[in-house]
Amino acid sequence: MTTNSEIALNKYIAHAGYCSRRVATDLIKNGKVRINGIQVKTPFTLVKATDLVTVENNPITPEKKIYILLNKPKNVICTVADENNRKTITDLFAGVFKERLYPIGRLDRSTTGLIIMTNDGDLTQRLAHPKYEVPKMYQVTSETSIAKSVIETLLQGVPLEDGFMKVDEAGYPTSSKKIVNVTIHSGKNHIVRRLFEELGHPDIKLDRFSYAGLTKEKLRTGEWRHLTTQEVAALYQYEEKELVKEPKKINRAKKYYARLG
Ligand code: URA
Fold first, then answer.
1. Ligand 1 pocket, 13 CB below 6 A?
2. How far is the CA of 110 from the centre of ligand 1 (A)?
3. Which residues form the RNA-binding S4 domain (predicted)?
């Protein structure tokens, strides 16, 4: 925001990393927001760089947006704080950024792989929302062989307690029957583990090797990098119900995993 530009109040609060734009809209409507000490209840009120905005009496300072692609290691949980003192995903960035980063979506504690960390509430809300159908690719490794019929059932659909679920793609990336790659756009909790458990594989190892077209090439477990401006722009281009696919990149990721297998 430059000194002369103006921005809608709900957007300003979301951009500051305080919360999503939708939550900001509710806070404004509920009378929790003030501009220069005056209560404002219209979410689209324009804010200037020189205005002082407070939400529930907390001053809001617009902060630089940070977008990190992390290859999450095992034994790290995707919450901001854990009451049992287990290692959290934000612990991995302790002392690195002054901005408060949080993950877009979640991976289980024992799942490794790609997750985006950001302070951009708008992008978080967008990518985490089921209507944007962000494709996620997982490599599943089982102790026992995974039958072809399991793959077929995954593609046809499996009844789970919270509804019928099918994957977008599934197949063996190598000659091993113990490894299966799946592409799924659902972000429901434990979705891949629940599908495999239902089909007789309760103890799988899970690694997310592609998220929204981004791959973990050159990113070893535990490593992270900043997203490029182009990558962030591409993430913002997800349209409702339309997959923005990057087949070249995804095929590269598949080959990379086939080599590892
Ligand atoms: N599905 C799962 O079961 N676990 C994850 O961590 C991600 C997707």
1. no
2. 9
3. 7-66
Quickly tell me which residue has 């997800």 as its tokens.
238
pLDDT at 225 over 50: yes
Across residues 197-208, what is the average pLDDT?
97
Q: What count of other Cβ atoms lies within 10 Å of the Cβ of residue 143?
A: 10
Give per-residue pLDDT as tens, 90-119: 999 989 998 889 999 999 999 999 999 998
Catalytic residue numbers? 108
Nearest in space to 215 (alpha carbons), one of 120, 137, 127, 111: 137
Residues carrying CATH 3.10.290.10, the chain: 6-59
Per the CB < 8 A criterion, the answer to whether 33 and 54 are in contact is yes
Q: Note the CATH number of domain 67-256.
A: 3.30.2350.10
In this model, does residue 250 exceed pLDDT 80? no
Q: How many residues does the chain have?
A: 261
Ligand 1 nearest atom to the CA of residue 184, by list position: 8
Ligand 1 site, residue 206, Cβ cutoff 6 A: yes
Q: Are 114 and 216 within 8 A, CB to CB?
A: yes
State the pLDDT at residue 243: 43
The helix/strand/coil state of 169 is: strand
Give the per-residue pLDDT at 85: 86
Within the chain, all domains assigned CATH 3.30.2350.10 are found at 67-256
> Residue 73 Cα, ligand 1 centroid: separation in angstroms?
14
Angle at 117 between CA 112 and CA 122, to 5 degrees: 135
How do residues 125-163 score in pLDDT, each as one tens digit?
A: 888 887 888 999 999 999 999 999 999 999 999 999 999
